[in-house]
Structure formats: structure tokens, C-alpha cells
Design brief:
The structure is a homodimer of 161-residue chains.
Chain A: E1 5-7, E2 11-14, E3 34-39, E4 55-61, E5 71-72, E6 81-82, E7 95-106, E8 109-113, E9 121-128, H1 131-134, H2 145-148
Antiparallel strand pairs in A: 2-3, 2-9, 3-8, 4-7, 4-9, 5-6, 7-8
Chain lengths: 161, 161
């Protein structure tokens, strides 16, 4: 039985990042950058009332990522971790997930800030970010905790060459 | 050019919900239920250090959902909204997203609570929920706000028949 799941891009994400060099490691570190979702015309009716939300969840295809690494070293440290304990793009299914700030909905799509994806990334879904569902408290952040606790921020929050 | 994205399930999510009736509308309302991710053996190395996180992001296939509704009425009210302003499963790409609470990692996968998916759901990805990236403040929740503000909770948080 073929259990594979076939998805089709609903749009293209345009961003200032043509290459991985300099790209923020997470959307939170891309505050100042702007991106634009070009939503394909057949999906634009689905934008109704999106402008009421301040944040959106984008689900997209890491289309330039070919490899899978089940255990590897993340950007932030030299210890290795399992892929399901990391946000690395080298995943069994190359699906990216970012929370971004909505700036403006227009006829062709959405302008947003807090950008951490490559220019030309195929978009698979947009969902509204809902604080009552998605903003959790009493979270324990595993190996990532030590890099951020007490208001600390990693020295490098953008990929180096 | 074929731009479609072909994904393969990495496991199966087992839950107490065989049918949509009674299922929580969001994982936050499924506090007491338990689910189990049966991760296929070839991916289990990727579980290393997952147990350090309290919450996980699950991305999965709404495999029993056939239709797409670009504009429709959500469960919570009679007004209609665009699909990208809702968490409805009737999406152009039937991708589900839930934040769940990790209970235990074992040899076969992960036991979790806060369950809102059907039994037998094909799993596509697991990512660690990281409060520093994912828990946003100053969020405006569009049309959903009025159903939750001032600590309110909708009367119905589970699907009715």
C-alpha cells in the first residue's frame, strides 16, 4: 500500500535570503527582515479575516535540503542530538515550520516580518497562531535551555558561511 | 515542472479517538487523554535527547479528510472565515499541527498527553517545542479572541456528532 503523502505548494515565499549564509537560525532572530508570500491565485479566497491575527504559522518545504541526519550537531553547540530534538532542516520529511509576524495582507498574499527561510521556498500551509492554543507555559526546553536561560541569547543567531 | 512534495509517514499516532465525535477541537482541551507515537524502527535513532523537552510539535496527515473549503464556518461560531484564518482540517494541503505534552520516550516511540488527533493518523514530523522560539507574547488572535478572552473557555471544546 502506498502511504506516501503528496502535497502541492500553495505559494512561494520571497525573502532577502538567497543563500544560507547570514540567515537567522530562527524567525525570532529575523525581526528586521521582511518577507512576502505570493499565494497562488486559486487559494486567495482563503485569506478572508487573516488580517485580524498578529502572528501566523507557516509550514513549508525545505526544497534545497537533500540529506537526512538522524543524529547530528545543531548550530548552537558541539553535542550531537537526535533530529526530533532539533529544528535542523535535515529531517526525514523536509518540512519547515516558522512563526512569523503578519504585517499586511494584500491582493497577492501576505507581507510578514521575522523571516528565517530562503528566497523561493515553496509554501505548504498557513495557519493562524493562536496564543490560547500555541503559547505554552511551564515549558522545559531540553538541551536548548542552557543557551537562552536568564535572558541569555546565543552570540551567533545567524548562520555563518 | 512537477513541484509537488512527496512525504512519507515516519510513524503512526495511536489515540483513543476512533471517530471525530468527542475529539477535542485543540490539543489543549485533551489534557486527560493519552496518545502513543509508534515511530517506525528506521527513525528511532532520531529520538536521542527528545526526553529533555516537555512539549513537542507534531506535524501529521489529516488522512481521513478529503475536502477543501477555502471559506467556511469554524466549529466555534457561525461566521465564515478563510481557511488560512482557521485551524480546520479542510485545507489545500491536509497537514495537521498539534503541540502536545511529552510523557515518556520508550523503545518504540513516545507517549504523550493533550491529544486531538484521530487514531491511526500518519505522522510526518516531530519537532521540539522551544518556548524561546514558539511561545509568543503580544499576540492578537483575530476572530478567535472573543471566544477565549478574560479567561473564558468555549462551552463546547469537543466535537459533537
Amino acid at each position: 500500500m502506498d502511504t506516501s503523502v503528496k502535497l502541492k505548494p500553495i505559494g512561494i515565499i520571497h525573502t532577502p535570503y538567497r543563500e544560507l549564509e547570514g540567515i537567522p537560525i530562527q524567525s525570532r532572530f529575523g525581526e528586521k527582515s521582511r518577507g512576502h508570500i505570493e499565494l497562488f491565485p486559486e487559494y486567495r479566497d482563503g485569506l478572508k479575516d487573516v488580517e485580524g491575527f498578529s502572528h501566523l504559522i507557516l509550514i513549508y518545504h525545505f526544497n534545497r535540503e537533500k540529506g537526512v541526519r538522524l543524529v547530528g550537531r545543531p548550530f548552537l553547540e558541539d553535542q550531537s542530538h537526535g533530529v526530533f530534538a532539533m529544528r535542523s532542516p535535515k529531517r526525514p520529511n523536509p518540512i519547515g515550520f516558522s512563526i512569523v509576524k503578519l504585517e499586511k495582507v494584500d491582493d497577492t498574499g501576505i507581507t510578514f516580518s521575522e523571516v528565517d527561510m530562503l528566497d523561493g521556498t515553496p509554501l505548504l500551509d498557513i495557519k493562524p497562531y493562536v496564543s490560547y492554543f500555541d503559547s505554552r507555559r511551564d515549558v522545559i526546553n531540553g538541551w536548548i535551555e542552557k543557551h537562552f536561560q536568564d535572558g541569555k541569547k546565543p552570540e551567533q543567531t545567524n548562520l555563518e558561511s
